[in-house]
Design goal:
The chain has 412 residues and is mostly helical. The chain contains 20 helices and four strands. The chain folds into three domains: 48 residues, no CATH class; 193 residues, no CATH class; 56 residues.
Length: 412
């Protein structure tokens, strides 16, 4: 009888819209937490279950933050320590060895600081996005040997990583670690270095096939003149090294500098599509829906390239919640190990040991495999890493067992 109160179209509407308007199920809450963070601790599941899908998403997005959850290392504030000696007065072997050891200590402290933040942050989604941008705007310790600059870059990604994409692109283009990593400090008038211009177009904003080799050359000219003071932690512009001649880039002609080049790129449709596709692969599945990507990218552009607005669109979409997509992603090493620690409330973990475990599994923090970043999907898994994953989870499970035994002994 109740069925007859509704027309067929109205009944179908309620049938398919009910899950979105109803409180989350336990499985829904787990899915949302796993995809937007690391693991699904019981207390966080309980906090989400009363919400609808949209309410839960708004709750997570309202918790985004732009500051780190862990105090910064003492060495993170410039000016940074310079190596001993100079060309005129080379350092002795003892002083050089001590400086090299200090750098290695800082590298380990940087990674431990980052891991501790992944585990303890009140906003795992913030940490997920910081890790996402580290894998998008890649820079590496191996190339720069500058843990202090990589930490400053991390702070930049936190500050701008859920704001407007254009602001992030402008800022990262002058980030000292990025400028050193892609040789922007050697890019000067008459001797352009194309590394940053090429990766900006190919990997960071446009994607292959969206520009020409001549566009790369002209963009590189626009980026000439940047210099890095490694130990002050700053990038400055030297007009004497800048090519201020006329350039033709993506069909536009003018005396373009770096900011103008970036603005021309951001005026294209491709950056919004590229970012949307990459976020789809991060949060939904490895096979983006082309029509939805185009629609979401258009909305992203209409919002002024607001990253948080795009995240809301993704997390409230039917595609995100679709049963077919819930088991469609293979966890990265950080998602696997950090997720296990957070889900089970493990407190006896060793951040230094975790850095080695993550590296063995293919995710060496602050050292992506190449400018293209770490692997995706099935590339995380081979016969060696599959066994390593099993060993590392067993190791953490043993830590949990010891933790539980100590807790039981304290209650007796």
């Amino acid at each position: 009888m109740l069925f007859r109160l509704f027309s067929i179209p109205v009944f179908i509407f309620f049938l398919f819209s009910a899950p979105a308007a109803s409180p989350l199920s336990y499985d829904d809450a787990v899915h949302l937490l796993e995809r937007t963070g690391f693991g699904a601790p019981p207390r966080e599941i309980a906090a989400l279950v009363p919400f609808t899908r949209a309410g839960a998403v708004d709750f997570l997005l309202s918790g985004l933050r732009n500051d780190p959850p862990v105090p910064l290392p003492q060495w993170s504030i410039p000016p940074f320590v310079k190596p001993p000696g100079d060309k005129t007065h080379p350092a002795d072997a003892t002083a050089k060895k001590a400086y090299d050891q200090m750098i290695q200590d800082h590298v380990q402290e940087l990674r431990s600081w980052f891991i501790t933040g992944l585990i303890t942050s009140p906003s795992p989604l913030t940490e997920k996005m910081v890790l996402f941008w580290h894998n998008h705007f890649t820079s590496s310790l191996e190339k720069t040997n500058a843990p202090d600059l990589l930490l400053r870059q991390d702070l930049l990604l936190r500050k701008l990583g859920t704001g407007r994409f254009g602001d992030l692109v402008h800022a990262i283009s002058r980030d000292p670690a990025m400028v050193l990593y892609l040789d922007g400090n050697t890019n000067m008038k008459g001797k352009p270095n194309e590394n940053y211009a090429r990766e900006l177009l190919e990997l960071f904003t446009m994607g292959e096939g969206s520009y020409t080799e001549q566009d790369v050359k002209e963009a590189a000219r626009g980026f000439t003149g940047l210099t890095v003071d490694r130990y002050a932690g700053t990038t400055t512009f030297d007009p004497r090294r800048h090519d201020d001649g006329q350039k033709t880039f993506l069909g536009k002609t003018g005396n373009f500098d770096a900011d103008a080049i970036i603005d021309i790129i951001l005026a294209q449709d491709r950056p919004a599509v590229l970012v949307t596709e990459k976020l789809w692969r991060t949060f939904i599945s490895l096979q983006p829906d082309p029509a939805l990507v185009q629609s979401w990218a258009a909305s992203f552009r209409s919002s002024g390239d607001d990253i948080t607005a795009l995240l809301r669109l993704i997390f409230t979409s039917d595609a995100f919640w679709a049963p077919a997509n819930r088991d469609a992603l293979i966890k990265s090493p950080a998602e696997l190990l950090i997720g296990f620690i957070r889900t089970w409330g493990i407190t006896g973990y060793d951040p230094k040991r975790l850095t080695y475990q993550l590296a063995r599994l293919g995710q060496d923090l602050f050292n992506p495999l190449s400018v293209k970043g770490w692997p995706w999907g099935r590339d995380w898994i081979d016969t060696a890493t599959l066994l390593e994953r099993r060993r590392d989870i067993a190791d953490l499970a043993n830590t949990l067992r010891i933790q539980s035994q100590l807790a039981s002994a304290n209650l007796e």
